[in-house]
Amino acid sequence: MTSIKLPNLEAFITRRNSLIQHIRTTSGSGVVVLNTAKEVFRSRDSDYPYRHDSDFYYMTGFCEPQSYLVLQVTPTSSTSIIFCRPKDLEREIWDGLRLGPELATQYLGVDQAFSVEELNAMMPDLLKNQTHIYSRLAISSDMDALLREWLNSLRAKARLGIKVPQHFHDIEPLIHEMRLTKDAIEISLMRKAGKIAANGHIRAMQTSRPGLREYHLEAELLYEFRRNGAQSVAYNSIVATGQNACILHYKASDAELKNGDLCLIDAGCELDSYASDITRTFPVNGKFTTPQKEVYEIVLAAQQEAIRHSILGNEFQKPHEKALEILVAGLFDLKILNQATHGTVANAIENKSYQPYYMHRTSHWLGIDVHDVGSYREPMSSDDSSRILREGMILTVEPGLYFRPSPEVPEKYWNIGIRIEDDVLVSSKGNEILSSDAPVAINDIEGLMSSSGN
Ligand code: CA
Predict the structure, then answer these.
(1) What's residue 45's pLDDT?
(2) C-alpha closest to that of 58 among 372, 277, 273
(3) In angstroms, what is the span from residue 152 Cα to ligand 1's centroid?
């Protein structure tokens, strides 16, 4: 038999070893049980496209449904076990190849592998005489039910002197803390995901012209993602023209791209389980109007200043605070806020006078999930202090301004919605913008669009 193994297998083994070490430090010994995501029924005979669970993937690299990872940890040894779907020629003809337990040990680098059909029979034995269980608690009702079933079967044998685990630990914070800092393999994938998504945005800008509809540009994004090997979008693409740009989670629909309007695209791809997340706002006809330019320059200045502060050692909050200062000063410049009513920039920030026009935060973590896991607070601090940015963390920076028709807003700005978003890796040298291939300066966007016939 030829030797096959998962690409980057060492990274997954290293992660499991870190988790094992953490369990030793916390409780000396214990058993980890981690399940992947369920297949979800869509309609009649069709399912939604299957997406594995992110934590399970991070620990195993395995993408098949109906899989479980079990780690038995003692102070001096550990055993890793995978339960997966058994080989089944009949099912494989219909649904595709299965790895099967026979190949799973070498492919996934685990000590043992069994058919998932043996899970319920084997788990009580694997939990017997253990004290600590690490699993998802009160998150997946399926996992809760399985744990209850396995433990009840052990409790029934308590009179025989069998010990039943008494201490339950939620495994998510442990894994999420690990996922917050990306390793070299993850960073390299996210660079690629950023480039592919940036190309999608470029293609959409090049295609844009009055008379097309939002879904035409959505199709261009998807074409660029897939032809570069991305498996899917990282989230439903937002293609929002005209007043739709003021709806934050608008989905690409059938609105017509009109001469003189802007189009806001918030779209990223998922490449080998890693997300990119980019927003660009551009004129449908390739030329910004003066009021659009005025607003755009404010959002861009806020975004650049926030990126400058997305560096090692700064608090996670800092980029948001810096973006706010510029956005709010801009709202005064545009005469949407005024001194008589709102006082100074600092007053307006404190009183949240900007909230009708900027109602979301500036950043979130990015990784296997588009809104990635990891606490926004320092986990070990006694107060609620903000997370300090460290090398290997990846965050989005995405300020915006949104003007619905309102008596407070000069009419020339009505229905302008602008957001600019990039993906930023905190590095030892400061930071690296993973999505910088997508043009962002007004001149660059207008230049790109005019060279493509706009
Ligand atoms: Ca985002």
Answers:
(1) 84
(2) 273
(3) 44
| CB count in 10 Å sphere of residue 250 | 20
Q: Could you tell me the two tokens for 332? A: 């005064």
Q: List C-alpha distances in Å: 353 to 30, 165, 272, 349, 358.
A: 51, 53, 42, 7, 9
Q: Per-residue pLDDT tens for 390-432?
A: 999 999 999 999 999 999 999 999 999 999 999 999 999 999 9
Q: What gap in Å lies between CA 35 and CA 146, rounded to an integer? A: 10
> Which residues have C-beta under 5 Å from ligand 1, the single-atom ion?
277, 396
The answer to whether the Cα torsion of 375, 376, 379, 382 is positive or negative is negative
Catalytic residue numbers read: 45, 249, 266, 277, 360, 364, 371, 398, 402, 419, 421
| pLDDT tens column, 233-271 | 999 999 999 999 999 999 889 999 999 999 999 999 999
Q: Are 277 and 396 in contact (CB under 8 A)?
A: yes
State whether CATH 3.90.550.10 applies to domain 181-451.
Answer: no
Contact at 8 Å (CB) between 354 and 327?
yes
Degrees, nearest 5: CA angle 137-142-147: 60
Q: What angle do CA 368, 370, 371 make, to 5 degrees?
A: 110
Q: How far is the CA of 279 from the centre of ligand 1 (A)?
A: 8
Contact 6, 109 (CB under 8 A): yes
Q: Is 182 exposed, middle or buried (0-12, 13-18, 19+ CB in 10 A)?
A: buried
Q: Annotate 251-284 with DSSP letters as a single string.
A: PP-SPBP-TT-EEEEEE-EEETTEE--EEEEEET
Q: Where, residue-wise, is CATH 3.40.350.10 in the chain?
A: 9-179
* Phi, psi dihedral angles at 56 (to 5 degrees): -60, -45
pLDDT grade for 158, boundaries at 50, 70 and 90: confident
Q: 336 CA to middle of ligand 1, Å? A: 26
Tell me the CA–centroid distance for residue 220 and ligand 1, in Å: 20
Superfamily of domain 9-179 in CATH is Creatinase/prolidase N-terminal domain (3.40.350.10)
| Gap from CA of 368 to ligand 1 centroid (Å) | 13
Task: Specify the 3-state DSSP secondary structure of 96.
Answer: coil
DSSP state, residue 369: S
End-to-end CA distance of the chain: 58
- As given in the structure block, the two tokens for residue 227 are 């032809």
| Integer Cα distance of 286 and 263 in angstroms | 10
- From the CA of 287, how far away is ligand 1's center (Å)? 25
